[in-house]
Model the fold of this input.
Amino acid sequence: MKTRFILCFLLFPILTFAQKGISLGRGILEIDFRKFPTLEFHSDTLRPAGKKIRITKNKQGDFSIQDEKQNRTWFNPEGLWLDYSIFILRVDEKIGNWYRVYVDNKKGTTLWIKAGKTGNFMSWPEFLQTTTSVTKNKEFNLEIKSGPSDTSKTIRNLEQSDCFEVLEIKGDWLKVQPNETFDCDESEHPIKSGWIKWNIKNRLSVDYGLSC
Done:
């Protein structure tokens, strides 16, 4: 997986995702758009689908959303960059084989989608370990700690110039180090490693980066 990221980064930058004002939820639903799925969204698990997203290919042979201009008026999920092999939805709730997902992160709109072969659910700890970078979320003033606890010694505050990679996760804490894979850390106060809190009051307190 990391080899794929390195090769892609030679051509494309890291895409940073910062979602404001919505709850953390349960995790991430990754959509395998290469199977040309039709995603059916329901206002309730007992109601028929009210909205649909169909994946197709355009005249240039690239993956795209059918009637994209019209659908993008209501569909702005966690991450949608098909050219970068990214299509993810934030899962607010999971009940049986149904997911309540954010279909518009900016407005906080949620709908239900049934689990299928084209979707792979990951809890936040699982997903964050697949990210290519972790950076400061401007809404939170985080401290870098020596251990995974609020009472652990503070190394320093997290800076906007920090760019970390995740080493491990314990509860609501990420163990991080300066990002060696993409060499994106520009802090003038480098650290060897430390712990930062990724979940504060059911909010994602860090931004994360993905590549193709």
